[in-house]
Amino acid sequence: MGLNIAIAGNPNCGKTTIFNALTGARQQVGNWPGVTVERKSGRFKHLEHKFDVIDLPGTYSLTAFSAEERIVQQFLLNEKPDVVINIIDASNLERNLFLTTQLIELGSPMVIVLNMMDMADEKGLEIDIETLATLLGAPVVPIVGRSGEGIDVLKEKIVRVATELSTKSRPINIPYQRDIENEIEKISNLVKQSNKNLHEIRWIAVKLLESDEQTRDEIRALNSGEAILKQVGQSIDRIERLFKDTGRAVISHARYGFIQGAVRECVIEKLQDSVDYSRRIDRVITNRWLGLPIFGLFMWLMFKITYDLGSFPMDWIDAGVASLMNLISGLLPESMFASLVIDGAIGGVGAIAVFLPNIFILFFIIAILEDSGYMARVAFIMDRVMHNIGLHGKAFIPMVMGFGCNVPAIMGTRILESRRDRILTVLINPFMSCSARLPVYILVAGAFFPENAATVIFSMYIFGILAAIASGKLFSKTILKGMSKPFVLELPPYQRPTMRSLILHTWERGYLFIQKMGTVILVGSILIWVLGYFPRNVELDRDYSGERKIVSQSYSQDLFKLTLNFETSIKKDRDSYHSEMVEYPASTGYKQLKAQYDSLKSHISEAEASTLFALRQQEMGDITERKWIGRVGKVFEPIVAPLGFTWRESVALITGFVAKEIVVSTYGVLFGVGDDVDEKSHGVISGLRASGMTPLVALGFLVFTLLYTPCLATVAAIKRETGTWAYTFFSIAYSLVLAYGMAFGINYFGTMFQWLS
Amino acid sequence: MFNFRKPQYRVSAENLDDLRLSDLKPGEKGRIVEIGGSDQFRHRLIEMGLTKDIEISVDKYAPLLDPMELIVRGYHISLRGIDAQKIVVTKST
Q: What pLDDT, on the 0 to 100 scale, is given for residue B76?
């Protein structure tokens, strides 16, 4: 068992950098029980001591408003870590020290880390470390987290504080005005009497004056709880009368008073003109006129890099999966098991694994945007737009990411602080047309709107955005009403991200994708394989092999006749050939006849091939129709019939539930060109046209594909991020209903007004 | 969908004559007199250092003219106009 250490601090104070510097790669990432707040823990050794470190969520204060703050408060009170490392941004002392005053009151042994000393220097701040340590009653270690300067000193200090438990701290009290101190004393005495085992009496008294719900509940449970709370009520009344403000506001003001006094004593602002580099950068980046174009450029670059750079490893993975399938099919004898492994498991998971490079690159870029401080500027720039749908400016990022893939986008909603905002963003995210839907658009639009394919595809994207905005407005006025928090956003100074933290961030999120989505997709792929594989032998109405034989026979008869004709003609021609100078086979007459013969011959074999191909398509379609997958399609056919869809569309849409690009390969199977097709395959296009689908139905199908239930991986991500099945099922149901309604509308009104005919 | 003028807010507080943080132009400074709005909002701002008498300066408005960027206690914070309108200030130089 090692010593327990907790790292606490404001958001943007460099907590994670120091956590990484302490623990290296020995980290575990999970969730705090019951909430989707990341829980990071790690361990490290110093001399003979072992340490378990927990990186608490960044908070400005210890109150019970947000999930993060509740977690920090409860963890510090219940788990009682051996040492709390309080990280402070040295370039932003006053606000960072607010949390410190609360931690001091909480009474855990503490080491204070002054991080970002380099930036404080740049700002022209000179900090008297010794005086600060005396004033705060805890050792203070100056550090430059990015370069690791000072980490060893920190480790030493941690060991010292952790092992010298007897001299645990030189406890100091945050002094309040006399009137408040009086009330604190009254409450403290009562608490002390009722339960002698309670530590942090002063902390409890202060929290009670601040009307902290959590503390009130704990006190209420005590024997003399009611009496204490009565006193608290009187004290609060008194304070409010005296100061004309709530207890909490008065105490917060007193804390800042203490902080201002401390800062005045130990910080010298050098007279030289300090340069606020971040402010200079922001003169351009969030400039009134340049801000939006620069943001647009960054977004465009993000996409460009994600897809262009991702396409190289994409091809390698594709080739890797193919050779793996070959290798295994060489090792395993042809059997059901072999098909399950190769076509089901490897084929299905491989189809998704192809997107891994994109996802990792996207996460890497997002890590850069986050670590550098640009993400806060995005929220600043886009807030007005997002405010329109009742969202925080930051919600724009996951929305844009949704164009790439909804899964990382939904996981990206973690950058939002409020749960309500996260859920709302998660729910509307699937309407952002992800890249998996593009192959479907290209195929269907290419088949039915060859002249205007680009316009049709583009309007799908626009339609998706409109659906997201409309749904967002609807949700924020109905099911997610009124829980929105005021927009209070810190714009932290820009920083150059460290490679180490970028790689760690990327890996953490990417690994979750591999882990969670891998399992879901594996199960889904096997399910589809089962549906397409059974029953093994199907009875067909037509004797395809017989028909094939007849076709082949008739063509070989044609060929035979042709050859016979050719030979007769040659014979005739040779008989009338008299020249002695040139051998007959080199004569013009022979050459002409031969050329004629060759061209006719190739005509015949082409015709044969295409007839056989059509026959094969029909056969595959017939077979699939009789497999379970086709039967399922048939079951749903009456439901989708009002949209103009047949059993084929219903099969394609059902399989598209695993991953939307599967819609294309399903059509490939249905039209018998094998599942190794892409959106440019002519077999599928001709098959689609021949299947009786009209352009109107095709449009409905496109809209349905855009709107309906996102893929399994997305569903898993929704479950993961909302934490409840209720929202997950709601999302599935809502998108299905919307898709059905829209496609029905298109078909109904389209038929009525004869659009596209 | 958006009007590209600085959004106008209904002044909700009692005293219509009070100068509000949202009235300040980029580059102007003020001292906080009082913060209105819900307790949750007030407490959040106070805990982030927007205490009485503290000097706060308006750095700029966002490209779409909302929210605004402020400097207080040496750091940068952003508030929406609708929230800044709840903060009563006196102009300082």
A: 95
Q: Which residues of A touch B66 (CB under 8 A)?
A: 383-384, 387
ipTM: 0.89
Per the document, the length of chain B is 93
**C-alpha to C-alpha distance for B20 and B87, rounded to whole angstroms:** 6
Q: Give, in order, the Cα–Cα distances in Å from A43 to each of A6, A21, A101.
A: 11, 11, 27
Percent of chain A predicted with pLDDT > 70: 94
Round to whole Å and give the CA distance between A322 and A314: 12
Report the pLDDT value the prediction gives residue B1, as an integer from 0 to 100. Answer: 44
- Nearest residue on chain A to B7, alpha-carbon basis: A384
A291/B63 CB distance under 8 A: yes
Q: Is A248 exposed, middle or buried (0-12, 13-18, 19+ CB in 10 A)?
A: buried
| CA distances to A12, A378, A662 from A366, in Å | 16, 12, 28
CA distance readout (Å), A544 to A554, A618, A622: 15, 9, 10
The pLDDT-based confidence of A166 (bands split at 50, 70, 90) is: very low
Which member of A292, A379, A485 has the closest CB to residue B63? A292
Query: Side chain identity at A685, as an amino acid letter?
Result: I
pLDDT of residue A173: 84
- Helix, strand or coil for residue A278? helix
Say how far apart CA A757 and CA A698 lie, in whole Å: 12
Which residues are CB-neighbours of A276 under 8 A, at least 6 positions away? Answer: A123, A493
DSSP A55-104: EPPP-SS-SSSSHHHHHHHHIIIII--SEEEEEEEGGGHHHHHHHHHHHH
Q: How many domains does chain B have?
A: 1
Q: B6: pLDDT confidence band, cut at 50, 70 and 90?
A: low
pLDDT higher for B93 or A502? A502
User: Between the CA atoms of A592, A596, A601 and A603, what dihedral angle is there, to the nearest 10 degrees?
Assistant: 140
Confidence of residue A325 (pLDDT cuts 50, 70, 90): confident
Angstrom distances, CA of residue B47 to CA of A2, A252, A256, A681, B26: 35, 6, 8, 62, 24
Which of these ranges, A105-119, A135-149, A565-579, has the smallest mean pLDDT? A565-579
Q: What CATH number corresponds to the domain at position B83?
A: 2.30.30.90
Residue A386, pLDDT above cutoff 80: yes
pLDDT at residue A169, as a whole number: 53
Kindly state whether residue B29 falls inside one of the protein's structural domains: yes
Flag whether B35 is in a domain.
Answer: yes
pLDDT over 90 at A338, yes or no: no
Chain A residue with Cα closest to B6: A384
Q: Are B72 and B2 in contact (CB under 8 A)?
A: no
Confidence category of residue B11, pLDDT binned at 50, 70, 90: very low
| Structure-block tokens of residue A79 | 């788990």
Q: CB B80 to CB A486 under 8 A?
A: yes
Helices of type H across A343-405: 347-353, 356-372, 374-387, 396-401
Assess whether pLDDT exceeds 60 at residue A468. yes
Q: Cis bond leading into A175, ω under 30°?
A: no
pLDDT at A411: 82
Nearest CA in chain A to B77: A490
Assigned domain for B41 exists: yes
CA angle B8, B10, B12 (to 5 degrees): 145
| Interatomic CA distance for residues A115 and A12, integer angstroms | 11
What are the φ/ψ torsions at residue A696 (nearest 5 degrees)? Answer: -65, -45
pLDDT tens track for A471-517: 999 998 888 876 556 788 999 999 888 898 899 888 877 887 787 66
Q: What are B's interface residues with A at a Cβ cutoff of 8 A?
A: 1-2, 37, 39-49, 51-52, 59-67, 69, 73-80, 83
Domain enclosing residue B69, as ranges: 21-92
Q: Answer yes or no: is B2 within a domain.
A: no
Residue located via tokens 């996802």: A359
